[in-house]
Amino acid sequence: MAELADLIYCELLKLKRSKMILISILGALAAPAMLLLECLQTYFEHPEKIITLAHIYDSLMLYTIILMNLLVYIIIASYLFSREYTEKTLKNILPIPVSRASFLTSKFCILFVWMIVLSFFSWGSTYLLALLYHFVFGMAEFHFHIALTYLGKMLIGTMLMFLTITPFTFLAEKTKSLVVPLIISSAVIMGNAALSNQDLGALYPWTAILFLMQGSLSGTGYPVWTSVSIIALVSILGFAATFIYFQTEDIK
């Protein structure tokens, strides 16, 4: 445990010199900003429509789970698992008596915490922007307990998203760059857009997370255990591929 804690601390020190933190925060702000613009557009074009806090957070989950934050999380994962190759620091790290498994585990821990923090950031910034809108224009059913309910859903959704991002950590290791994971992520996001309103989305791990969080999975005709099993399978394969490849790779 001491070794893992030291490695996590080292990862945090390396992130202090990186611009990726600022970039990821800006990425997490994209969905709340889009929602504010959407509310303003609705108010001025269709003032008769009622906007509620629950409606805003439903839209936030849609944007964060299958679009904006998913892309940000994949970029972060690819960055964390490829930076040692691109910055050519791996040869300096591995001669130190540190197990490769602990080295990878520390990166997964940083990735998980980073995703949770950004999820809090998206949720909190959305609430503040909704509060601003409420003061200026008024919003129906604006209650903090509604926001807290959606916070729980978003955190669970983020944990599930963490599990489905593991294949991208393997791709980042295998290709030693950000390019391939980003190309594959665009295909995944296109699949999300195509299946987010289809019953088959329950069988697509990234869209299935949205269905689970929205409570709409029962309407697809597929049992919950099917979607959960697919998510678990993707996660296990991703973790296994990442650890096995790194353990057996000959660092040149």
- Counted up, domains total 1
Measure the end-to-end span.
Answer: 28 Å
Beta strands, count = 0
Please give the share of residues in helix. Answer: over 70%
Cα Rg: 20 Å
Secondary structure category: mainly alpha
Number of helices: 11
Helix and strand element order: HHHHHHHHHHH
Largest sheet: none
Name the overall outline. Answer: globular
Beta content comes to under 5%
Task: List low-pLDDT spans.
Answer: none
The pLDDT mean sits at 89
Description:
The structure is a single chain. This protein is an all-alpha fold and 252 residues long. It has one domain (2-248). Helix content is 79%, strand content 0%. The protein has 11 helices and no strands. The protein has helices at 2-16, 20-45, 53-66, 68-86, 90-93, 100-136, 144-164, 166-175, 179-195, 205-214, 224-248. Helix 3 (53-66) runs parallel beside helix 4, helix 3 runs antiparallel to helix 6 (100-136) and helix 3 runs parallel beside helix 7. The protein is globular and about 65 Å long. The protein starts with a helix and ends with a helix.
What secondary-structure arrangement, pairings included, does this model have?
Blueprint (H helix, E strand, L loop, with lengths): L1 H15 L3 H26 L7 H14 L1 H19 L3 H4 L6 H37 L7 H21 L1 H10 L3 H17 L9 H10 L9 H25 L4
Helix pairs in contact: 1-6, 2-3, 2-4, 2-6, 3-4, 3-6, 3-7, 3-10, 4-6, 4-8, 4-9, 6-7, 7-10, 7-11, 8-9, 8-11, 10-11
